[in-house]
Design brief:
heterodimer, A: 139 residues, 2 domains, 7 helices, B: 498 residues, 22 helices
């Protein structure tokens, strides 16, 4: 019994032991879930179709697309004026405005005006706060 | 002890509490989101001042949830779910202000009782935990994960979520500074540059609790805000403290239930308020009135969910194990300042410990003062349009993720990855709380597990090391068996109902 439970850890490969155990446990748990919920999983096509049809696609996918664009442009724009945080500022203003308009339900001038003010003041204040008092460089 | 009470310290607590109440009062936004968004601001504040802000946000965020729960019948935070049961009927009867003030007083009682438990219990537990070796430390983490998974709505999915969190936390190098060999693992080819240190904790947290929540709202079309016409505070109902006569047992019991639930890792505030509410109903002389506007129901719910605040800090500050999602974020504040929480924390950082207790005390008093006397104004918070708030929060999430490691763009992408993953979790019925606690505790679990085997060379050491190990195994087995029995009982009840 003593020999069966004895364990020797090789330091050079010790980084693989725990991840391997966790991967096996994860696999077994996944298998148990698949076996237990097989009926639900088999019928999940309708669940995903319903989710997709109930989703507000313009707002959800639009928010994702705008966020992707925002993240992708921040560094290239920032590289034009290095170490000034301009990438953040110049991308955040249109991002806040565009996302706000996307999330809006009524898009009249009276609704857009407060958003426009927030889109200009918010990122500018945050840019000033991080660049000057906090000395943290933004992209 | 009181030299910490500088104007800045107090202002940060009061300001944090105010922002927290606003976050809590807006449905779809939570205390966790408030802490996630404001975390990077603590970078330049220092630990005590940073914690002052975050603890204010925490207390305010949990308390603010009662405003929409009572006035609109929509819980502002998940922990206010049971406040809607009696609060909303009272508001409909024109007793909104009265219901709000009952909730505010109960929140204060819950917060103060849990703070007392924190102050008395955490140092004692930490002193005890100092004696733990790697074996007991590993078993404590194992116990925390089993308790958390066992109390999930679906035990199997809860355990899977926790183990998935551990697995993802192991991506990167096996940290030399913690006794590892510095080798990479689980890193896909071509991503070594970005994933050498794995995913950073804070962008992961901000993604899961900030971006994911906004994506969920976007998916349902970002519901329109409420107008002032929707809010019925009520002008004819006068609040009097006499309403608490005969309710002291209910208040203390609910506060202690909330505190105890808070101590259990990963069990959210909704469980605290539901269990408190159920108990109040069971022991009430008027159980039939519950759900129709019974003040005792609001008291139980709010004392229970605010009781969580101090309780959730007990395992964090004594064992290094977060009690809930929000306290998991507080680990981020400690990490930012290079401090590790665990059994040695209170003994080695008495000033910070005192500051936290004082901050929690002031935050509770500030929450009460602001909400009690200005509740009519806070009621208007629910009318703030989300199409203005959400883009600003998204921008703050980006700032938080980017600045946390002195400007690494990969952290911003991590935020997006985990934001989408968090949204996907709700679709797949996976649980975020066990995932995040697994993610936080995974690296420590690995070190304790490997070092135990290296030191003793025998797998039985986990069972034979000490009496504490044996007790922990009994607790682990008990929590799993209890959860399995509860799950079976629930299934039988639902089968009978069908």
């Amino acid at each position: 019994m003593g020999d069966l439970t004895r364990v020797t850890i090789d330091f050079d490969t010790s980084h693989l032991i725990f991840p391997t155990i966790i991967a096996i446990v994860l696999g077994l748990l996944g298998l148990a879930i698949v076996i237990r919920d097989r009926a639900r999983i088999a019928a999940s096509g309708s669940y995903w179709r319903e989710s997709w049809s109930a989703m507000d696609k313009p707002r959800f996918l639009g928010a994702l697309a705008l966020t992707l664009l925002y993240f992708s442009l921040m560094v290239p724009v920032g590289d034009i004026w290095p170490n000034t945080g301009m990438g953040f500022l110049l991308c955040s203003v249109p991002y806040v405005l565009a996302t706000g308009i996307l999330f809006m339900h009524e898009r009249g001038f009276r609704q857009i005006l407060p958003l426009l003010i927030v889109a200009l003041v918010g990122p500018t204040f945050v840019w000033w706060l991080f660049t000057y008092p906090l000395f943290l460089t933004l992209p | 002890m009181f030299e910490i009470l500088t104007p800045l310290f107090v202002s940060l607590i009061v300001g944090g509490t105010l922002i927290g109440i606003i976050f809590g009062a807006i449905p779809g936004m939570t205390a966790t989101m408030a802490v996630a968004v404001c975390l990077p601001l603590t970078y330049s504040l220092g630990l005590e001042n940073g914690l002052a802000l975050l603890l204010g946000l925490y207390v305010g965020g949990i308390s603010g949830g009662l405003v929409p729960a009572i006035l609109l019948g929509i819980p502002g935070t998940p922990s206010s779910i049971t406040t809607t049961f009696d609060g909303y009927p009272m508001a409909q009867k024109g007793e909104g202000e009265k219901a709000l003030r009952i909730g505010i007083v109960a929140s204060l009682v819950g917060g103060l009782i849990s703070l007392l438990v924190l102050d008395l219990f955490a140092p004692t537990l930490a002193d005890f935990a100092i004696k733990f070796s790697y074996v007991e430390k590993f078993l404590i983490i194992f116990f925390a994960l089993t308790v958390m998974a066992a109390l999930s709505s679906d035990m199997l999915l809860g355990i899977f979520s926790g183990v998935l969190g551990i697995f993802i936390s192991l991506i990167g190098t096996y940290d030399i500074s913690r006794g590892g060999n510095g080798e990479l693992r689980l890193v896909p080819p071509g991503t070594e540059y970005w994933l050498e240190s794995g995913f950073s904790l804070l962008p992961v947290l901000i993604g899961l609790f900030g971006l994911a929540a906004i994506l969920e709202q976007a998916e349902i079309g970002v519901p329109k805000g409420h107008s002032t016409k929707d809010i019925n505070v009520g002008k004819h109902s006068r609040f009097s403290f006499g309403i608490f006569k005969g309710q002291s047992i209910n208040l203390v019991r609910s506060s202690l239930i909330g505190t105890f639930i808070g101590i259990l890792p990963g069990v959210g505030g909704s469980a605290a308020s539901i269990i408190s509410y159920t108990n109040a109903k069971t022991f009430s002389k008027r159980p039939g009135n519950f759900g129709k506007g019974e003040p005792a129901g609001i008291m139980a719910s709010e004392a229970g969910n605010n009781g969580l605040t101090g309780g959730a800090l007990v395992p964090l500050l004594s064992l290094g194990i977060p009690g809930d999602s929000t306290t998991a974020l507080l680990i981020g504040a400690f990490t930012l300042q290079g401090i590790q929480v665990g059994p040695l924390f209170i003994g080695n950082n008495p000033g910070t410990w005192d500051a936290m207790i004082i901050a929690m005390l002031i935050a509770n008093i500030a929450m009460f003062a602001m909400m009690y006397f200005a509740i009519r104004y806070f009621a208007l918070v629910v009318t703030i349009p989300k199409h203005i708030l959400f883009p600003v929060i998204l921008m703050m999430c980006v700032i938080g993720a980017y600045t946390i490691n002195y400007g690494i763009m990969f952290d911003v992408w991590t935020l997006l990855i985990f934001g989408v993953l968090g949204w996907l979790f709700t679709k797949l019925r996976l649980e975020v709380a066990p995932f995040i606690i697994g993610f936080i505790l995974g690296p420590s679990a690995e070190i304790y597990f490997i070092k135990s085997l290296e030191s003793f060379g025998d797998a039985t050491i986990f069972f034979t090391k000490s009496w504490i190990a044996v007790v922990l195994w009994i607790l682990i087995a008990g929590s799993v068996a209890g959860a399995a029995l509860m799950s079976k009982k629930n299934k039988e009840i639902s089968d009978e109902a069908v």
